[in-house]
Design goal:
- The protein is α+β, with helices and mostly antiparallel strands and 417 residues long.
- Helix 5 packs across helix 8.
- It folds into two domains: 99 residues, 3-layer Sandwich (Rieske Iron-sulfur Protein); 241 residues, Alpha-Beta Complex (Naphthalene 1,2-dioxygenase Alpha Subunit, Chain A, domain 1), CATH 3.90.380.10.
- The protein is built from nine helices and 17 strands.
Length: 417
């Protein structure tokens, strides 16, 4: 006789065993996907873009999160705004997908016209008693943290984003991301659930077998290991590596560059982790030879030996190096499809072919993202299989996956599921 599977989302959440992956239905069911969108992509802070996506007044770009469409723009006063892409007349979309330049936001349906601050300035044939002041565009709550744009679609955004602001403001300041330039962008659709995408990124247990390009600059010891499986020589090498980490972190921080690990991964609403990591080999950047891809360093940076400041978030991961940054945003499309949007940032005045080679800049993370897309598709196909049972996480290499799964369960239950 087949085991009866839980029919409610709450029952699925309740049977998840600590230290193990999630029950299959939490990855595959459409009702769970709708709940995820409600809880994690409407009631929590999510990354949607960058200040440098809209560098000049009038620059605008549309970002769709499920059924919600947002306009990220820079207004005439050079201020960032995030507006709902919904006309206050009868709801038509104001702007289509992608980037554009606008002086005003004009609805193509009935020409209702809005200023770039969201105020309604023109609504023909609505009568003398019509109050335009009551029909401005709906604003979305947003924060720019070191040039990264976070949005919460709830009327009651979680307050613990304050710790992310406090931690990342000083860490990101030298990179001056709000004044950087997007040198390249890719959109890759992974054939898997968004949680599998995030889980895949939060461990490097798989890296040595699947990411040869990335492993040139990544230090595999940073991502966990079973000490009992190491030879005495390898154990001494690991001990030496961690002594180097302690010394390097002390030096970086003494020089004014916050570097120690800081995380808010459980018992919280806003989920993040950051640490300055040593870059292997030449030690400069995540490229095929670990040397810098751009001669013109980011922002106010004057050094190429400051490692990789990584930042994980609920729907993003980021790497900030002396010469460039890689910013990735995850947007669920369905229970089984996930958009992974990656942007490579350089100094705003860096010139392609003069200051940087685009191929060298992008090749490592293009290869890594394609490899990860294949792994996520394999994982999703596996959780669809009737033979799937939640498996145990490595207590050496996958502790952050257990934290993510525990946080996921906790947040779903906190919102009534």
């Amino acid at each position: 006789m087949l085991n009866k599977l839980p029919s409610s989302i709450s029952a699925l959440l309740a049977i998840r065993a600590d230290g193990h992956s999630l029950p299959a239905g939490l990855y595959t069911r459409e009702d769970v996907f709708e709940a995820d969108m409600d809880v994690f992509f409407h009631k929590h802070w999510i990354a949607i873009g960058l200040e440098c996506d809209v560098p000049e007044p009038g620059d605008a770009t549309v970002v769709d999160i499920g059924k919600t469409s947002l306009i990220l723009l820079r207004n005439d006063d050079a201020q960032i705004r995030v507006l709902h892409n919904v006309c206050r007349h009868r709801g038509a979309r104001l702007l289509g997908e992608g980037k554009t330049i606008v002086s005003k936001l004009v609805c193509p349906y009935h020409t209702w016209t809005y200023e770039l601050t969201g105020e309604l300035s023109y609504a023909p044939h609505m009568g003398k008693d019509f109050d335009k002041d009551c029909h401005g565009l709906k604003l979305a709550s947003f924060k720019s943290i070191g040039g990264l744009i976070y949005v919460c679609l709830s009327d009651e955004p979680p307050e613990d984003i304050a710790r992310l602001e406090e931690a990342m403001g000083p860490r990101l300041a030298p990179y001056d991301i709000d004044n950087a330039k997007v040198a390249y962008q890719t959109d890759v659709v992974e054939e898997g659930n968004w949680k599998l995408t995030i889980e895949n990124n939060r461990e490097c247990y798989h890296c040595s077998a699947n990411h040869p390009e990335l492993c040139v600059s990544f230090v595999d010891l940073d991502f966990g290991f079973d000490p009992e499986m190491l030879s005495p020589e390898d154990r001494e090498q690991a001990d030496e590596h961690f002594r180097l980490y302690e010394a390097r972190t002390r030096t970086w921080e003494a020089d004014g560059y916050p570097s120690a690990a800081i995380e808010q991964l459980v018992d919280c609403a806003t989920n993040f982790r950051s640490q300055r990591l040593i870059i292997s080999g030449a030690g400069e950047s995540q490229t095929h030879d670990a040397t810098a891809a751009s001669k013109k360093l980011l922002g106010h940076m004057t050094r190429k030996d400051l490692g990789d400041t990584h930042l994980w978030g609920q729907n993003s991961w980021n790497h900030f190096m002396g010469d460039h940054a890689v910013v990735t945003i995850v947007i669920p499309l369905s229970a089984s499809r996930t958009l992974v949007r990656t942007k490579w940032l350089v100094h705003k005045d860096a010139v392609e072919g003069v200051d940087y080679d685009l191929g060298k800049l992008t090749e490592v993370w293009i290869a890594t993202t394609d490899q990860d897309a294949d792994l996520v598709a394999r994982a999703h196909a596996g959780v669809l299989d009737p033979a799937y049972r939640p498996g145990p996480y490595s207590r050496f290499s996958e502790t952050n996956l257990n934290k993510f799964a525990s946080w996921y369960i906790d947040r779903m239950q906190a919102h009534g599921y």
